[in-house]
Amino acid sequence: MAASSPPPQEWLPPSRPKPLLPSYTFDMDLDPQFILRDPANLRSLYGHPMERSVRKQMDHLDQHSRAFIAASPFLVISTQGPDDARLADNSPRGDFPGFVGVADDRTLLIPDRRGNNRLDTLQNILANPKVGLLFLVPGINETFRVNGLAELSRDPELTGRFIVDGKAPKTVIVVHVQEAYIHCSRAMLRSKLWDPSRHAAPGTIPSFGTIMSCHTNGFVDAGAMDEENKVRIPQTLY
User: Could you identify which of 22, 99, 121, 230 might form a hypothetical disulfide with 6, taking C-beta atoms 3.0 to 4.6 angstroms apart as the criterion?
Assistant: First the structure.
């Protein structure tokens, strides 16, 4: 696959700065002989992990794991529905640092805050309890990964522990930890995610309303949605 020259920007508002980095398209014609399907071939290509990368994996949360989770205001939860019905899904979850509760060394509690009611994550959990969590801490280049089995609880005593602004979540995602380990900094260092000089300038990507209008074939009015969200989103966080 050879990279072609950067195409013209399809969307840029007038008098706005251009993106920090150009976008590239690729001429892609997959050759079947190079598609990997055999685990042995995959391993021979990459080699074996360092022993410490294997040894770091635990089946519980220790004091260092707890400290990382307590500092994290943001995570991504990955779920998978039944094989014949739903695709894999990733969903962001964010709140104040430490919003995820640690019930004990093998149990995490994630309040399901207000969202768009698609319920992709929750429906997947009902069908398939396997979940993956990726915790991020602003300014920290390492991340923390947790894998396990999840279930949903609407126990008032449990949801009542997570009341914010007088509002409790409708459910709490209870994650039973099976794997937990720190992840190295390479992805963050390559992306420079926390570097303010690399943050996108206003106007370099289409607005939420613009994207929604396009993706709903005009069902949503772009300008109206952008104006509405300035007020509605901050008022409906919980």
Answer: 22
